[in-house]
Amino acid sequence: MSSVTMEARCLEKRGSFFKLIDTIASEIGELKQEMVQTDLMLEDGSTDLQSPVKDMDNVCPEKKDLKGCPRDSGYDSLSNKLSILDKLLHTHPVWLQLGLNDAEAVEILQSQPPGIFLVRKSTRMQKKVLSLRLPNEFGSRLKEFAIKESTYTFSLEGSGISFADLFRLIAFYCISRDVLPFTLKLPHAIAAAKTEAELEDIAQLGLNFWSSPANNNPPNPSPPRRPLPSDNACKDSRQLCLINGVHSIRTRTPSELECSQTNGALCFINPLFLKVHSQDVSGSLKRQSPRTQDVNGTEKPRSPPPRPPPPSINSLLTSPQLSTSIKQASMPGTVNHNKYRNLDLLQKKPTPVPPPRLKKQAVSLEGEGNAKTVAVIRSSHNSVRGSETACDPGEALCEQNLTACRKTLATNSESLVQWNGGRQRLSDMSISTSSSDSLDFDRSMPLFGYEGDTNSSLEDFEGESDQESMAPPLKPKKKRNSSFVLPKIVKSQLRKVSGVFSSFMTPEKRMIKKIAELSQDKRTYFGCLVQDYVSFLQENKECHVSSTDMLQTIRQFMTQVKNYLSQSSELDPPIESLIPEDQIDVVLEKAMHKCILKPLKGHIEAMLKEFHTVDGSWKQLKENLQLVRQRNPQELGVYVPTPDFVDVEKIKVKFMTMQKMYSPEKKVMLLLRVCKLIYTVMENNSGRMYGADDFLPVLTYVVAQCDMLELDTEIEYMMELLDPSLLHGEGGYYLTSAYGALSLIKNFQEEQAARLLSSEARDTLRQWHKRRTTNRTIPSVDDFQNYLRVAFQEVNSGCTGKTLLVRPYITTEDVCQLCAEKFKVDNPEDYSLFLFIDDTWQQLTEDTYPQKIKAELHSRPQPQVFHFVYKRINSDPYGAIFQNNDDNSTL
Amino acid sequence: MMAIRELKVCLLGDTGVGKSSIVCRFVQDHFDHNISPTIGASFMTKTVPCGNELHKFLIWDTAGQERFHSLAPMYYRGSAAAVIVYDITKQDSFHTLKKWVKELKEHGPENIVMAIAGNKCDLSDLREVPMKDAKEYAESIGAIVVETSAKNAINIEELFQGISRQIPPLDSHENGNNGAIKLGKQTTQTTRRCC
């Protein structure tokens, strides 16, 4: 990609980009003011944020990049600044033991010092519990605290403090006891660990850690900390660190916030709850709360509390070559050089695709919004170590360049240098060798480090916005142009910003993003599964016999992959630790839409169109749509207010937006909005509630008025791909109704033909046939619908009968008029239609339907003799009618 | 906390017999403002306690006109219960009801709970369908039967309580103690599916 084009794009997009930067800058400004702790970095922080503006014309902003590079955090880690949260994230294979039963938990914990804990799932309580080792004087050795999971949060039962995920919950209870008898204690080895490598070593032991020599306790274990006195609010955060002998929490300057991903949490307590429980919370946390609340309140009023900057498991830069290699790598030439060399290197060493079930310790994937995979080239290739190390930071940059190129250059990526997204399987990479001797090597090879990070986080940001703008009203809208293509430099600068944004993401979004990233990563089994399936479908158009077949296969695949993901260990940390249990399926479903339906949407649409063109159903729909549109609402059975032209246009817009969505759930959401609008029009402020009797005809009318053939495929897409568990809900109902409306339209002609005998008539006729075969042999013409035999009775002239053409919806009033003509009555107002049955006369009111009455009488189990008689209202009919008894009997 | 079971209930019956009035009455009396209302009266939900469970009724109204008849299977598919409504002042509507029962027996979900509601019992002056007929018929098909008045809120709650009682409780051990995470998940899915 030429820099000229890029600059042009820069200019194009500069306006909107500036706006974004401005927002962020002002946001950071506010943060600064609220900060308790200020330091010299503040100045730098703000310059850094605005630097992209200055750097727009500069193709090689190495200096800036270097300065703001998140990898600087590596130095932090070297000086032992791992937070409790980091330690917990790294070592969850040790303490997060969801499969452990009661006895095993006792077994492990009884030999541990007080304060040590495990998180597991109690089969007795059917819940996650915190199993805590108590000091011996407490009587029992172990106490379990149930963990409550609501739709969005985790909390300890009895506590008012909620957390977005389990890690944050545990981290909090490591420093504050709240409802616990004392604070939690990390095993000594974890508390004392100074580097991520040490933690990784521990994590690799998994459950074995507890019995291994690594878990040797310090000579004089400090007793668990007693409840903090309430006046401890003034104690500074350094004292908190001492609790577990590690750095725990401290406030951040904006510059730290943006560049460090490894440090302690900014705030991991939902600030909403701080007031209630502030006596348990350290002073520093208290001071933080107004700040976060402010951010919360101004930026995203209804979104969950901001997330701390995601810690990173990614490797640390220990090499002194760091700065030089970055400089080299960021030169365009070097970029390519590095790139291809790297690719060659990879292709030389084929190793098998990872097996479906990986050991947890083997995959080092980090959740926190910027998943980084640590790839390992087998230890036998130690010779390449030096160059790989050099590649590390450089890779991050060159990948960004490439990403930018990829986005702006070509739409079809077949020929692109897409070395981890392309078709060829990168089987030369192995996820890990889990031996600890390769660990240092391991850490120096985060090949896909920032590529995945920046690319997907920005893509997510863009991709989300087009979908999100239509999300339910509860979610804040992100006003952003979906076609916004970021120039590479801007992008590299934005990386930090997006890091800040990702820290605002809810665990749900982070999880979805992480799964989406995983699905792009062919080194994982899950990634292979998804990518292979997607490309298989795209290449094999003939593999499905019908549209339903195709959609059902896709749905089945999504369900299977979901099952796989919920059981496999490829998600690390496990999804249970981040997402409350009743939400896991929901989150996985959304992730499936993103990683399977999103790439397939275009293909599916094209295929559906093809299927329907070939089988002629579109032609049929098109013709019938024309017919239905010519009908007025009453002819379609609509007797309530209908949407006018403007409303129909609004509805059309909603349907068109629907077409852009890939997620069936979001499509359904739009369908619901359309239906809501229809209800509003129908009710027309009358306060009347309309059921399906009225709604379905109106919906049919509206669908016809919209005149969109594509609706057919849209409905089909939703019907087949929507999560089956949603099909019984409101979305499922209106989807069914829309499907029904469309099939009524499709079969309009046939229905019209069949209606020659009206619907009721058909049914009566059927009953009539049944009765007829037993009672009578030859049907007479008046038994048919549309004909009515009426006797005319005059006092003087006796009785005459005529068979009249009377359609089912003709009222008595009209029949009377007809009789007056046929029988040549001069004063019709004196005459009326009567029903003579069971020896009694019933005068029919003007608004009744004689045909319906007849149908009803015919359908009675015991056939009765009855006659319709047109006669004078006030005459004495009794004798007259029986005088003509014979005549009547032939009716 | 009690487990919530979602139960799909479909409403069948002639147009004009008061299907949606019954549901509106049921849902809107003692309306729980915590539950987000649905967009319209064709689909409504209400949660009621039943033993150790909460039953969340997902009530699907159908259009009673004959021309929509062919769509009905899409609506009653997967229903745990069907409320078939007739108008006690219209003999016709009782015949339609019998037709629906027959169709449900032939094509409806297995073990579907059937409840017959003779609506408009406030208009007993105009009664065409004797209570006795309905009772005998309901007995012959093993259905619940009540005469209701959506207008005067008579027997509406009872109708749905009757349905709740007929829904077999979830297998206790399925809900229970021996499950690891995996089983727990399956339980939730079963809960969803069974309605």
UniProtKB/TrEMBL annotation, chain B:
Keywords: Cytoplasmic vesicle, Endosome, GTP-binding, Lipoprotein, Membrane, Nucleotide-binding, Prenylation. Belongs to the small GTPase superfamily. Rab family. The lineage of its organism: Eukaryota, Metazoa, Chordata, Craniata, Vertebrata. Its main location: membrane. One of its GO terms (cellular component) is early phagosome membrane. It is a lipid-anchor. It is found in: Cytoplasmic vesicle, Phagosome membrane; Early endosome. This is RAB31, member RAS onco family. Pfam families: Ras. NCBIfam families: small_GTP.
